[in-house]
Design brief:
Radius of gyration: 21 Å
Order of helices and strands: EHEEHEEHEEHEHEHEHEEHEE
Number of helices: 8
CATH architecture of the largest domain: 3-Layer(aba) Sandwich
CATH class of the largest domain: Alpha Beta
CATH topology of the largest domain: Rossmann fold
Strand content: 25-35%
Oligomer: single chain
Number of strands: 14
């Protein structure tokens, strides 16, 4: 079988001559075998972005030594950088309310090993989906959220995430607005699926907003959560064509299919370290 153990290097830095040569020479000088390479130069920002997958078995040392040696190159080019190990699965904590379609889809992909992740727990503000989650052998935490208990609820949610040693939080149709403090605590580590093609139709009932406007395309948007509602860096989007014969219920039904696919793709990009965030935008190396 092919050796699937990889170290993934991602970086961004001020653009200049010699970045690709320096990184490639560094890898080659340590007997490293680059099996996938992507890079992008943003001409407006004058910033360079790179992602490389290195065959772990090709190096004569482990990831700790790789990071130690690469730090010299990183300092020279003023890089923001990260090296991850494909053997260490991301720990994904799922948040859900009552709508189950995104949760069902992600658990099916996890069960089928299409998503190489660990799911240490599912958190919900309702108890509705407890049986389904626990049937999968996953701990379920019911944390009720009311106007009077929001601060305490989000403190408990944060503690659950920390106790689970979560790497990323996924709002799989979690119908609550997270507190600014919680959003700020985990930059680029909270992923949401919004049932609209943002930036259009933000907030509640976007399909009904779209119906009232007579749109011809509806879509879904996967994005990182920030303190500003539905304004975080966009990870992935998709659309489907509709017409005047479609009712609001039809739009909701079509939209659920798009939401599942877009959220799964967005989560995959994140866990495979294919995303680099720059301000309000993302660079996605698909």
């Amino acid at each position: 079988m092919p050796d699937s153990h990889r170290y993934t290097l991602t970086l961004s830095c001020p653009d200049r001559v010699g970045i690709v040569a320096a990184v490639s020479t560094f890898v080659a000088s340590n007997q490293g075998w680059i099996v996938e390479a992507n890079h992008h130069a943003d001409q407006e920002l004058k910033r360079f972005f790179m992602r490389q997958e290195i065959l772990a078995s090709s190096l004569p040392f482990g990831i700790a030594e790789l990071r130690k040696r690469f730090a010299t190159i990183a300092a020279e080019f003023a890089m923001d950088w990260h090296i991850s190990d494909s053997a260490v699965r991301k720990r994904v904590v799922l948040l859900v309310s009552k709508q189950e379609h995104c949760l069902y889809d992600l658990l099916a992909r996890w069960k089928a090993k299409e998503l190489d992740i660990d799911i240490p727990c599912v958190i919900s503000n309702h108890d509705t989906l407890r049986g389904f989650v626990e049937w999968h052998g996953i701990p379920f935490h019911h944390i009720a959220v009311t106007p009077d208990t929001k601060a305490a609820a989000y403190a408990q949610l944060r503690q659950c995430f920390e106790d689970a040693r979560g790497d990323v939080m996924v709002l799989a149709r979690y119908m609550q607005i997270l507190s600014p403090d919680l959003c700020a605590a985990y930059p680029s580590r909270i992923i949401n699926i919004h049932h609209s093609f943002l930036p259009s139709f933000v907030g509640a009932r976007p399909y009904h907003q779209a119906y009232e406007r007579g749109v011809k395309l509806i879509g879904a948007t996967c994005h990182y959560v920030t303190e500003e509602l539905d304004q975080g860096p966009i990870i992935e989007q998709d659309v489907i064509r509709v017409d005047h014969t479609d009712s609001p219920d039809d739009l909701v039904r079509y939209g659920k299919d798009i939401e599942k696919a877009v959220l799964a793709r967005g989560l995959r990009y994140h866990i495979e370290d294919r995303l680099l965030v720059q301000g309000k935008k993302t660079v996605v190396f698909r």
